[in-house]
Amino acid sequence: MKLKTKNLLTLSELSQKEFSQLIDFSIKLKKELKAGGNKPLLKNKTLTMIFQKPSTRTRVSFEVGMFQLGGKAINLSSNDMQLSRGESIEDTARTLSRYTDCIMARVYDHGLLENLCEHSSVPVINGLSDSFHPCQILADVMTIKEKKKKLEGLKIAWVGDGNNVCNSMVYGCALSKMKMSIATPKGFEPKLDVVKDAKKFTDIEITIDPIKTVKDADVVVTDTFTSIHNRDPKRTKKFLPKYQVNSKLMKYAKKNAIFMHCLPAKRGSEVTSSVIDGPQSVIWDEAENRLHTQKALLAFLIRA
Ligand code: CP
Ligand code: NVA
Question: Which of 161, 223, 261, 292 is catalytic?
């Protein structure tokens, strides 16, 4: 299977069919791995990873994923590259394209990724920008499918900051026809053009009322109030106590609802320990599934 798109920056590049095939292939790779190992689908392929921001999950899951498929990942902090001395992103893209089969970058400005794509002849994957985190949502949707055995018609409740992960979740819901309700304080909504796009395919509701959002939800999701690009601790005051996911709020969701968080989490802030460490939480499967979905994505993008 090959994707029509060369790059993955937002998820909006994918068709519903491609998205569903990616999720199903991820589930297959996971089963294969647990049964003894994967085929060397990416033998002799290399992935170059550029990080402008810190990472635990993204970095390790991409590196291990390449290794498990027979390829190799090269990790670069942008501080160690000539980028830090003013070499342009255009020249960096052209150079890396001569060595490597794929570039994954974690950046501040999403526009930098678009620039990278334009001047790179090899696929570019967004490993998180200030605006989107598509790889996270591949893993989230895979986890939802594993736990709920279906996607279409489920209700996803997003509570808290309408941030980069939320923007990608909006696309993820559109691609899998899940309904989404988002509760954010005024001024913290996801990108309205993304919501408008997604509304062509599914119901997306934005409210200031977390109870309304969580009511009868199948999945409750939140993320930090202080993203890497929005670190001001004063932000937290705008969200607390109303937008914290705690046991009281979870009671409004369906009895069998699951709780998700991309991590890293701040217990006692966006979520209480009773929820994130409680029986409804699926965060460790969610984190693990970063590995399987990114392997599927790499295979779909660069397998010969
Ligand atoms: N969820 C996620 O992207 O984690 P890292 O920042 O650790 O990569
Ligand atoms: N919204 C968070 C996600 C981290 C994986 C951030 O951008 O820092």
Answer: 223
